[in-house]
User: Fold these one by one.
Assistant:
Number 1:
Amino acid sequence: MKQLHPEYQCSIDLVIDVIGGKWKVLILWNLNEGVKRFNELKRSMPNITQKMLTQQLRELEEHGLVARKVYQEVPPRVEYSTTEMGKKLQMTLFEMCKWGDEYAEQKGIAMNRCWTSYDFMES
């Protein structure tokens, strides 16, 4: 697990330690849509391995951005959602998505929308 330092010189360093890397932002972005089960997250990020998704979810949970709810059923059902602290990142992630779309358009890069539409966050 990614251990945080007891002290940081800059809050950006802390942010990078908490949500940095290839997958954590994408996991949080996908959870913006609501509660998801493990396989739903896996399908939304086809290039992530099961092991990596498990590791990243555990780290996000450890850092208080993702909640994991286990239902006492057979077979067991586990759902993931963003915590209140994780939800505070939604506007930042939304702005990152908008910036990426604008950048892609300027550079002629084909891009699928991160979200169905921006209306969700703008209303």
Number 2:
Amino acid sequence: METGFPWGSTPTVNVRLWRSDAIVLFDWLNNTDLNTVPITHPAQKQALTDLLARLEDEDVIDSTAAEIAAAQNEVAKGEQR
């Protein structure tokens, strides 16, 4: 098994996210000190770190403040399309 990137040759799943959800999650993960997030197992922090790394590969990384605010409003309202 590959010892490099965590999802190199290990089993994976594909998760489809609404773009606004991805923007909100990326913004939150990117601006949150994961050392302060309550966890019950170290794997939870690692999974959040891995999620952030995957979101960095998407086009949400360059979202403007206006796009983030709009995404937050849409997600808060549950306006998924």
Number 3:
Amino acid sequence: MKKIIFALMLLLSSVQLFAQSNDVEMADALRSNGKIYVVVICIVIILVGLLIYLFSLDKRLKK
């Protein structure tokens, strides 16, 4: 159990290091063209579809 917790702590600390960089040129280009909203809408649609699928699967498994 201690090994798993230690591995998760190392993983989370490395994720914070990647979040420090401010060089996101693609996002700036998409934002300037107004296409970032299309990307966000696509991601939201995919996530909502996955959630609906998981809830319907859960209902079927409970029956």
Number 4:
Amino acid sequence: MSLFKRTTVGKPGEWFYCLRHQKVEEGPECPAKDRFGPYGTREEAENAMRTAHERNKEWRNDPRWHDDDKQADDNED
């Protein structure tokens, strides 16, 4: 038996999307490194991947970010 068992802590009504199992969980069942959330509703958690994709697209096209120049510099190494 382990003295220091890691447990996931969550509240009822908090919803998460598990990246490892690709499923919605009420209360975290998996470690934080494997999930998005918490979300307020099951529907929000179900749309986690779509939301992330849309936000990534917005950030890539945001003129306030100039990561393309830095990435070009990084790829030259």
